[in-house]
Automatic annotation (TrEMBL):
Signal peptide: none annotated. It comes from Musa acuminata subsp. malaccensis (Wild banana). This is (wild Malaysian banana) hypothetical protein. GO terms for molecular function: ubiquitin-protein transferase activity; zinc ion binding. GO terms for biological process: regulation of programmed cell death. Keywords: Metal-binding, Zinc, Zinc-finger. Gene3D superfamilies: Zinc/RING finger domain, C3HC4 (zinc finger). PROSITE patterns: ZF_RING_2 (PS50089). Residues 223-258 form the RING-type domain. The keyword Oxidoreductase does not apply.
Amino acid sequence: MAVEAHNLHLFSSQHLLRSRFQLLITIWNQPSLHTMQMGFLSPVSGAAAAPGSVLGFNNVASAAVLAPRKRLRQVSLLGDDMSSHLQQQVLDIDRLILQHAERARAELTERRKRFTTQILAALEEGMSKRLRASQEEVARLGKMNWALEERIKSLCVENQMWRDMAQSNEATANALRANLEQFLAAQARAEEEAATADDAESCCCVGDGEEEAGVRREWRRACRSCHDGEPSVLLLPCRHLCLCAACGPAVDACPVCQCSKSGSVCINMS
Ligand SMILES: [Zn+2]
Ligand SMILES: [Zn+2]
């Protein structure tokens, strides 16, 4: 803005200077003033005082002046020289004005280019910062995604492991249940046989009856923890049926073999 103001001031001053030169040329070409400045011409009439060319001035001068013709010719030549000189000055001033205007335009164009370049550089820097931030965010999200995928894979593996373990425990429980059913069936048969033997009062069968009664007492022995409740909890993996329903969840190791408990199965004795 300062440059534009300076250029405007320069243009206005140059325009004023050129106007003054043109006014000076007009005044110089005016016959009345010219004759007054020369100092040897008498005042002219109203018709002769109107603005006119140098040729008109010469005509008026030749009609009114009483001086010799040689001197009049010198004055005319002097006026022509001054007029041409002033015209040359005006042309020089116009050329200078054009040069200044061209220089100011070039400088303005250069400043505009620099300003545009600075704006573009600032915009580019801001966009590059945003781009870097976006790339860092994308990289961070990618790492987080990778970590989550790894976590999902680990959980899938763990899930499969737990599923296999559950299937194994289920198979073990089924096998134990089948064994227990077989054992209970054998016990029932033994009780029936013992009853039959008691009825027959056979000497050879007394020993078997006592053995079956011992098995029943062994089976119905009390809980190994509280020595009160009926054993109904089967411990894994040792498969000892030695705890009642109240003591089963409370212990961490089998009271018979001291094996660490990994699971338990409640046995329905009815
Ligand atoms: Zn108990
Ligand atoms: Zn045990």
